């Protein structure tokens, strides 16, 4: 099933409407609505929003679905009573048909997880040897995180105070997006001389780069570009009080 189909079906159930009723209000066929809900028909976000507004949802934005959209749609307190009422109405139906419909209409936790995965990413936090020590939820906007593919970003936990003068201390977590060439003035995750750490970059020319630190005093080392592997650029740093 698709994310949009899940949202439409969830809102329809919450509004106690049948696919036929939704189709009539939206000016489309019942088979169209059922195909959208089943995920067998591709539907654009703007068309999904029009259907959701027609059903009764009023909290959509002009952009892609946001966390608020999901929160307003995923309302177990309202969905579950509606589904319980539908189950009571099906008691008189044959057992096999009843089981099939219950399976089709039951909204399980996996539906919410599938929907949330389109707007949230469980991003790993790596230590200095690139072992995941924890994960943090990060919002996805327009299918990207800070302009990068969601599966390419990660957090890196600063292993020391070598960038304290640049306001990055030991234990702080830096959100890193892919970047494989030096970016002048940026803080980047680099590998050199058998070490992996965060360094502030100063590009000297086309062949050399300055890796800067600032713990108690400013220091810098000059390297040839082939001697340094640039892993990514730091776009955000989180710290704990």
Fold-level CATH name of the largest domain: Umud Fragment, subunit A
Q: Biggest β-sheet: count, sense, barrel?
A: 9 strands, mixed
Oligomerization: single chain
So, CATH architecture of the largest domain? Ribbon
Record the strand order, biggest sheet.
2-1-3-4-9-5-6-7-8
Listing every helix as H and every strand as E from the N terminus to the C terminus, the arrangement reads: HHHHHHHHEEEEEEEEE
Chain-wise SSE layout:
Blueprint: H1 3-14, H2 19-26, H3 30-38, H4 45-55, H5 67-73, H6 76-89, H7 95-105, H8 109-116, E1 120-126, E2 132-139, E3 154-157, E4 173-178, E5 187-192, E6 195-203, E7 208-214, E8 218-224, E9 229-238
Parallel strand pairs: 1-3
Antiparallel strand pairs: 1-2, 3-4, 4-9, 5-6, 5-9, 6-7, 7-8
Structure description:
With 241 residues, the chain is of the alpha+beta class. The protein has two domains: 106 residues, 434 Repressor (Amino-terminal Domain) (Orthogonal Bundle); 119 residues, Umud Fragment, subunit A, CATH 2.10.109. It is built from eight helices and nine strands. A nine-stranded mixed beta sheet has the order 2-1-3-4-9-5-6-7-8, with no helix packed on it. Helix 1 packs across helix 3, helix 1 runs parallel beside helix 4 and helix 1 crosses helix 6. The longest helix has 14 residues. The chain is elongated. It starts with a helix and ends with a strand.
């Amino acid at each position: 099933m698709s994310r949009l189909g899940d949202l439409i079906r969830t809102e329809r159930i919450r509004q106690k409407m049948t696919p036929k009723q939704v189709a009539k209000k939206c000016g489309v066929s019942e088979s169209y609505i059922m195909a959208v809900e089943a995920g067998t028909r591709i539907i654009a976000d703007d068309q999904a929003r029009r259907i959701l507004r027609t059903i009764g949802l009023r909290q959509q934005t002009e952009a892609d679905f946001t966390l608020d959209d999901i929160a307003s749609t995923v309302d177990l307190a309202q969905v579950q009573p509606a589904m319980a009422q539908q189950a009571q109405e099906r008691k008189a139906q044959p057992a096999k048909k009843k089981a099939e419909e219950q399976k089709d209409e039951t909204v399980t936790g996996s539906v919410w997880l599938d929907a949330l995965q389109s707007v949230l990413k469980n991003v790993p936090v790596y230590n200095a040897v690139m072992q995941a020590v924890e994960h943090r939820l990060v919002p996805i906007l327009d299918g990207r995180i800070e302009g990068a593919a969601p599966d390419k970003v990660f957090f890196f936990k600063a292993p020391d105070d070598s960038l304290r003068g640049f306001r990055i201390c030991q234990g702080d977590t830096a959100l890193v997006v892919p970047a494989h060439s030096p970016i002048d003035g940026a803080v980047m995750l680099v590998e050199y001389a058998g070490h992996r750490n965060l360094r502030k970059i100063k590009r000297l020319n086309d062949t050399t780069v300055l890796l800067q630190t600032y713990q108690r005093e400013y220091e810098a080392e000059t390297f040839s570009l082939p001697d340094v592997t640039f892993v990514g650029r730091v776009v955000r740093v989180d710290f704990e009080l």
